[in-house]
Please model this.
Amino acid sequence: MLCEDCGVEMYRTDDEKRTDLEDRRVYECPDCGVTKERAKYRHR
Model:
């Protein structure tokens, strides 16, 4: 996942699974320090 501001590859900072269906991932940019949370929903 690339940072929208500076185009640098962001790295994962959080891999906490809240439920069986929801997997939230938090990304942080090493250059500008922007954090972004993306939720990925898994379907059975």
Summary: The longest strand covers residues 22-28. The mean pLDDT is 76.
